[in-house]
Amino acid sequence: MTLTKKLLCSFLCLLPLAQSAYAAGGIAMSATRVIYQGDKKEASLTVSNRNDKEAFLIQAWAEDVSGNKKTPFVITPPLFRLDPAKDNVLRIVHLGAPLPQDRESVYWINVKAIPSTSEASEHKNVLQIAVRTRLKLFYRPAGLPGNANDAYRQLTFTRQGNQVVIHNPTPYTLSFSHLAFDGRDAGRVGMVPAKGQISQPLPAGMQSAATATYSVINDFGASSDTLNQPVKS
């Protein structure tokens, strides 16, 4: 058998599997981020199954920014079945371990949706794909000064070589929705930690920049107004 025929045969054998494959679509969250107010006993997140035929097994847990599952938060229920066209509420509870009270702390909420196996597909070649959704969890201590949705106005930008140091003097962690230097898109940008800073490379070929144009993601998951700030040397 020639190589071409072998490849064609392999492809045809895989077709039934590919046609049976489906993703764990239809699972939706009530928010794109969760703000845990420090003076509250818990925060919540609603998980909805918008598929009117398939049930899913839902697994939920918290991680820190390094991916460690040992955190001061517990999510309940950690594992449950979500029937077609149904909702369930996840409760995020702080276990009381000390966290900084002068700034926000950031964690991740993970929600994995595992599709159920029907009796009809039990003896068939079916590729089931578990889909994991990650949302940022911001622990916000009570009494922080200022307004979280205005904090981005206090960012400063300073060029150091081919990098721009972005400094955040506020107690709120900021995530960019867009950043450009002199009109050129800066690409992927990380979070600027509360009372911290990050370094962002200038776009390829740029040796300097005069202006940073940016917006951030607010508490509601939408983009803030666009702002221009000078890039200091």
From TrEMBL:
Q: Which domain of life is it from?
A: Bacteria
Q: Taking the first listed entry, what is the main subcellular location of this protein, grouped into a coarse class? A: periplasm
A single cellular component GO annotation:
outer membrane-bounded periplasmic space
Location of the Pili assembly chaperone C-terminal domain: 166-224
- List residues of the Pili assembly chaperone N-terminal domain: 26-144
Localization annotation: Periplasm
* Alphabetical keyword list: Chaperone, Fimbrium biogenesis, Periplasm, Signal
Q: Which residues form the signal peptide?
A: 1-23
Asked whether the UniProt record includes Signal among its keywords, one would answer yes
Which InterPro entries is this protein grouped with? Ig-like_fold (IPR013783), PapD-like_sf (IPR008962), Periplasmic_pilus_chap (IPR050643), Pili_assmbl_chap_C_dom_sf (IPR036316), Pili_assmbl_chaperone_bac (IPR001829), Pili_assmbl_chaperone_C (IPR016148), Pili_assmbl_chaperone_CS (IPR018046), Pili_assmbl_chaperone_N (IPR016147)
User: Mind listing the GO biological process terms from this record?
Assistant: cell wall organization
The family note in this entry says: Belongs to the periplasmic pilus chaperone family.
Question: What is the protein name for this chain?
Answer: Molecular chaperone LpfB
Look up and give the organism this protein is from: Chimaeribacter coloradensis
User: Lineage, please?
Assistant: Bacteria, Pseudomonadati, Pseudomonadota, Gammaproteobacteria, Enterobacterales
